[in-house]
Design goal:
80 residues; mainly alpha; single chain
């Protein structure tokens, strides 16, 4: 596992925040889709497809706002 993260760092060091945002998007989508399905089931609705579609649209915005790739403090983790 350390080799993989080292490879990511070596390859994408200046763009590390973008790589981290992409990984976190992949991690966040299933969790948020499950939460949206729980809300739909609790409300006794049948709009699972709509809930999943909205979630898949909103999660990238959340990941972007949380990590601010290219802008925030993670932009330059290692000084050049």
């Amino acid at each position: 596992m350390d080799r993989m993260w080292q490879w990511v760092w070596d390859r994408h060091g200046p763009r590390y925040s973008w790589a981290l945002t992409a990984v976190m998007f992949a991690v966040m989508v299933p969790a948020f889709v499950m939460l949206s399905f729980i809300v739909v089931a609790y409300e006794k609705s049948d709009r699972y497809a709509e809930a999943a579609a909205i979630t898949v649209v909103v999660v990238p915005l959340l990941a972007y706002a949380y990590f601010l790739p290219g802008l925030g403090p993670l932009y330059r983790v290692e000084p050049s």
